[in-house]
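Per your request, structure below.
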């Protein structure tokens, strides 16, 4: 019994440690339809801060935004679940300050979750451009680029495409590939499974057992999707074999 208790304690200690063990990654990402002028565009993708609860995810968030500030990317995107408890708002403001980020809401921000402690976030005055079923068309390197944000629902309409834009990016908390007109989709929500059992025939991701789009890069019908492993935790303050990640995407034009 003492051996089992010691093993359980060690496992919990590791899960607590991993929740703050940030991985930083730079990925070269070929994107169909990317204008040549945007080749090499550096985009930071962060997701799922879940600030508020007692968790080392807050450590991962602090380290992630420090890394992003040091990298100085041309765009910063945050794909939802900014807060899990209202008391995390000061830490959220501190994390986003000066990043010039574009952000969308996640299901925890609007209290659509099985977490009975989650509360609808009050995000007035957020130091970021918040896109909730809305978009902006901006000039990047002389190219009109539409940046759109989906509402925090698993399905449903996305903002209409701006036909005048040469390239379009969709921020969606939930991973999705069926979004005609958008060349790049950035999403989160999945936490890379958060609690993962690595087996010889593949991983069992306990957070989303049946999900197909869990983490990394996916492509379908001209759409490129990046699903972030996220930074925070939900339900339990642990991660197992699903480290938090801050990602820089270097966009490349496909020949």
């Amino acid at each position: 019994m003492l051996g089992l208790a010691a093993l359980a304690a060690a496992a919990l200690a590791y899960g607590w440690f991993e929740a703050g063990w940030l991985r930083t990654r730079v990925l070269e990402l070929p994107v169909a339809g990317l204008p040549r002028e945007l080749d090499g565009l550096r985009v930071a993708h962060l997701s799922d801060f879940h600030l508020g609860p007692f968790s080392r995810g807050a450590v991962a968030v602090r380290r992630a935004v420090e890394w992003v500030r040091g990298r100085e990317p041309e765009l910063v995107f945050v794909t939802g679940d900014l807060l899990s408890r209202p008391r995390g708002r000061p830490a959220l403001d501190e994390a986003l300050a000066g990043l010039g980020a574009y952000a969308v809401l996640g299901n925890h921000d609007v209290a659509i979750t099985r977490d009975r402690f989650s509360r609808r976030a009050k995000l007035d005055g957020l130091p970021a451009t918040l896109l909730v079923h809305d978009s902006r068309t901006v000039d990047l390197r002389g190219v009109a680029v539409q940046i759109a944000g989906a509402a925090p629902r698993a399905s449903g309409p996305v903002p209409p495409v701006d036909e005048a834009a040469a390239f379009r990016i969709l921020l969606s908390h939930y991973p999705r590939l069926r979004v005609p007109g958008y060349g790049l989709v950035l999403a989160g929500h999945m936490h890379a499974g958060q609690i993962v059992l690595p087996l010889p025939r593949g991983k069992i991701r306990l957070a989303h057992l049946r999900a197909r789009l869990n983490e990394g890069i996916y492509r379908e019908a001209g759409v490129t999707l990046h699903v972030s492993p996220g930074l925070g935790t939900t339900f339990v303050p642990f991660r197992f074999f699903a480290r938090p990640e801050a990602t820089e995407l270097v966009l490349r034009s496909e020949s």
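The CA atoms of residues 5 and 11 lie 10 Å apart.

Regards,
D.
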